[in-house]
Structure formats: C-alpha cells, structure tokens
Inverse folding.
C-alpha cells in the first residue's frame, strides 16, 4: 500500500461523522475522487503533454491520428481494434475514447 493511500485511510478514519461507514462511503462523503477518475485524469494529462511537446514522446509513437471528419477537435485519434483483452488496457488504447470526447476549448 502506498503512503498516500495509507494517509487517506487514516484521515478518513479520524473523522467522527464517518464512523461505521465503509472506506468507499467515507470517500464519497468527503468528496474524494476514485482511483479510476484519478487514473483517467492522469492519462488525459499525459496525452495532452505528448501532443503539446511537453513530454519526450512523439504523438506518432503512441497514436494514429483519425482521418475522418474532425468533428470535435483537431487532435482526434483513431482507435485500433484490440483483439486481445489485455491490449484494451494499454495506455494508447484505453485513453482514446475519453480523449476524443473532449471539447475543442480544452486545446486552446
């Protein structure tokens, strides 16, 4: 267990109003984000950094640009078929749907 996770558990345990609740219920009451949301946010920030040149990687190392009508924004990505279940969890595949649904204003 990481330091941050142990710290969050300790803090949620110390709050009197939350006694008797599960960790998930305590987190919800305190307004803490879930691991899934934090991971998605981190992934989207990483893709943004790749496209803006703030990271060492090039966009073509990870992604293929979509050549269909760019309906949402200029950085729309093509989602390849993932025949293996494990491939769907790769960074370059799992982030594409959420990335393509971002509004145009995100990139200005």
């Amino acid at each position: 267990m990481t330091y941050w996770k142990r710290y969050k558990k300790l803090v949620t345990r110390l709050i009197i109003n939350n006694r008797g609740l599960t960790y998930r219920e305590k987190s919800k009451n305190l307004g803490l984000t879930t691991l899934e949301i934090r991971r998605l946010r981190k992934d989207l920030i990483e893709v943004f950094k790749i496209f803006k040149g703030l990271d060492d990687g090039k966009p073509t190392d990870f992604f293929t640009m979509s050549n269909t009508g760019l309906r949402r924004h200029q950085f729309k990505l093509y989602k390849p078929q993932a025949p293996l279940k494990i491939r769907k969890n790769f960074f370059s595949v799992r982030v594409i749907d959420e990335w393509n649904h971002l509004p145009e204003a995100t990139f200005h």
